[in-house]
Amino acid sequence: MNADDDYFTLLDRAKENLPEVGEVHERFVVPEMEIFQEGKTTVIKNFIDITDVLRRDPQHVLQFLLRELGTPGNLEGRRVVLKAKISPVQISDKIQSYTDTFVICSECGRPDTKMNKEGRTLIIECEACGAHRPVNVRKCIKNDTVKGLKEGDIVEIFISDVGKKGDGVGKLVEYLVIVPGTVKGSTVHAKIVKISAKTAFASITQEATTR
After folding, report:
1. How confident is the model over 175-204, as pLDDT tens digits?
2. Which helix (H) or strand (E) element contains residue 204?
C-alpha cells in the first residue's frame, strides 16, 4: 500500500466516524409583530413576546420606540398602544435598530448579551465571546442643522419622489439626495457616499424607517 492508499484509507475512516448531524446553533429570530390599528392608535399585540426574545426590559424597549417614532404610548398588559397611526414597516425597522444597538454583540454577532450600567454608561456584555462595549447610539444630522454636506455624513431625509431609474429622491437644504432602495413617502437614515455639485448620492443605513 502506497502513501496515496494510506491517505484515502484514513480519509474514509474519518468520514465513517463523523456524526450524522452536526452541531446546530439556534437561529435568533425576533417574532413577527402582530400590529393593528384602532382609530387613531396603533397596537403592538405581542410586544412582550418580542421583549422576551430580546431579553430586555419592556420599558426600555418601549421608551426607545416612543422616542424614535415621536409619539406617546403605554404598555397595557402584554401589548403596547401607540397614540398615533404608525406603519408596521416603520415599527419593524425601529425594533431592528434597537436589536442592532442594544442586543447584538458587535464582535461575534450573537444575541447572547446582557446590558448593565457603569456610572452613566450603558454597557453590553456578551455571554458568548466575552466582549464588553459601551452602547453607541449613533446620532444623525437633522434637516434643520445641515449647513453643508460631506461624504460620510449620516443624514435623516424624507423621500419625496422617485427618479426615472426607480431610486428614491429627497431634498436636504440645497442638495438633491438620491437614495437607491427607498420608496416615496419614507423617511430614512442614509450615509452620503458621493457629492457632485448640488446632487448627493447616499446609501441606506440600518436605521431606515418608513412613515
Report:
1. 888 999 888 888 888 888 888 878 889 888
2. strand 199-204
